[in-house]
Amino acid sequence: MLYVLFVQSGRELSIIEELRQKNISAYCPRQLKAERRRGHWQYVERIIFTGYIFVDIPELQPWVWHSVMKCGGALRFVSELPLPPDEDDYIRRLCNGGDCIGISRGYILDNVLHITSGFLKNLEHEIIKFNRRGKRATADVTIYGEKHRIVFSVEFDAPPVNA
């Protein structure tokens, strides 16, 4: 079960390392983002939810709580309850087993975005808007019933000829 931990922004990865040394699984979803700097596109790894990490434990027992709170920068658990199952599944996909999410590829046909590869391939229904020029697609995610918007990087291709 995943629990959400609120941490000091910028300390996410060091807290995850401390928790792993204590044999507690924790994740911080990251993605590769296309960013334009000085007229050129660069690819940079960014944390999706700054200030939050996801702790994977069977239940929030007192010894786990104390171990987590002893990590420098851990502030508080967002809830004493784990994420609901549907949100847990989505966040686990975002965590990508601890690996960074790559850039998705797709094309626009009749003002509809079609994803051909990458993380967003089976999540097209979650996309609420896209920006071809900015190489972005925005999706809604729910955590503890509250909507959050995530901006993913997308490389746009020309639509297939036979489409």
Molecular structure report:
This protein is of the alpha+beta class and 163 residues long. A five-stranded mixed sheet has the order 8-7-11-10-9, with no helix packed on it. Helix content is 18%, strand content 44%. It has a single domain, classed as NusG, N-terminal domain (Alpha-Beta Plaits, 2-Layer Sandwich), CATH 3.30.70.940.
Briefly summarize what is shown.
The chain has three helices and eleven strands. The chain is of the alpha+beta class and 163 residues long.
Mean pLDDT: 91
**Which structural class is indicated by helix and strand composition?**
alpha+beta
Summarize the helix and strand pattern as letters: EHEEEEHEHEEEEE
State the strand order across the main sheet. 8-7-11-10-9
Alpha plus pi helix count? 3
Global outline: elongated
CATH architecture type: 2-Layer Sandwich
Number of strands: 11
Measured by DSSP, the beta-strand proportion falls in 35-45%
Q: How many separate domains?
A: 1
List descriptors.
163 residues, alpha+beta, 4-stranded antiparallel β-sheet, 5-stranded mixed β-sheet
Helix and strand arrangement:
Elements: E1 2-7, H1 12-21, E2 25-27, E3 30-37, E4 40-47, E5 52-56, H2 62-69, E6 74-77, H3 85-95, E7 104-109, E8 112-117, E9 127-131, E10 136-143, E11 146-157
Parallel strand pairs: 7-11
Antiparallel strand pairs: 1-5, 1-6, 2-5, 3-4, 7-8, 9-10, 10-11
